[in-house]
Predict the structure.
Amino acid sequence: MSSMMPDWSQLPNELLPLISKKLELDDYCFDVVHARSVCRSWRSSFPFPSCMLRPSYSLPSFVDFPLENKELCTLKKVPLFLFRVRGPAASAALQCEYLLGGIGQDESDYRLALSSPLQCSVKVNARGIDPTLVNVLDYQVVPMGYQYRIVGWDPERWIGYYRGVVFLPLNKDGEGQEEFIVILNYSKVLLVLTSAEMRWKRLTTVPNYQCTDLVTFRGRFYAVFLTGEIVVIDPYSLEATPLMPSQPLRSVNHLVPSGDDELYLVENFNPIPDADELDFNRFTCRVSRLDEEAGVWVVVSDLGGRVLFPEHFGNVSCSAKEFPDGCGVSGNSILFTNEGNVTFAYKYGVHTGRAEDELNIWRFSGEKRVTILSTSPTVALRVEDHSENLALDT
């Protein structure tokens, strides 16, 4: 069989620039990774994919705030990807496994690491799973955006204090030295740093409560607080403007960007808050999208075929159109990756069989059972057909 496979390294070198130019227009950056793994000449002809580059910034340490610290830490931009294990179509319709995490280049602080020099394999690190090399060709890989992380300090020492960081460039014209602003969710306050001053200051224009969610969308910061308050923060003036739903709920709120296309607000709540025992199967969601021009949240029953993943990696999303039919992840669904070892996706208009349960709301759907295999440092999950109470395992 090996003698029947084409030897791509023998392709005339004059064709390589044409292939490289074609791949530059391809959104699937792992095609470039595959091409670079053919041989040395191909590796030198194909630049490393820009979407997988990891810009870094040296910042002053924040661990002793409000005292100044002469030590430094590093802010890194980490590309995120969703890996789906390829398999026969028949088995994929019943069960499929996924990995969600950031990717680096063989560095211990990343969840997934490209091996070197042969870049067709990825080292996977997940709690409870031995680090192992997997062939990228055995996976479908979907870009999921980016996450910023601070490295160069001991997170175990300050566990519970560091809650995430977000970054925005400030150069509108892209000329001159890069200027930027960083907001750090640390302990019970938000700290802000600009490239012009390079020192941490407390952000005082926001509610004086713990921040539970912090994202960026179309050049502005958005934050959710423990009280349920939501604000939008201007990166230049640092003024915070309330952005509450028209009918606030007693809920846990999550902000989920979908690139620069949409920003969703997922309000996760129990419709019977006074019940003696919590029935997690009766937890429901209300979902809204931001009408940025009007400055209001618009309740929606459709996500445009997207799948939302709140809770991990700054809340991410993808289009279900990326996956073949029957691969478990269906469009217009919400999957929380922190709700126990076994969970289900939320769908709109689910029939529960109880007359008192409202239909016009997002609710657990029993069609697909999701087993959370790991949440750190990589989210690993298994999606299984549960429509006929199947009990599959591997």
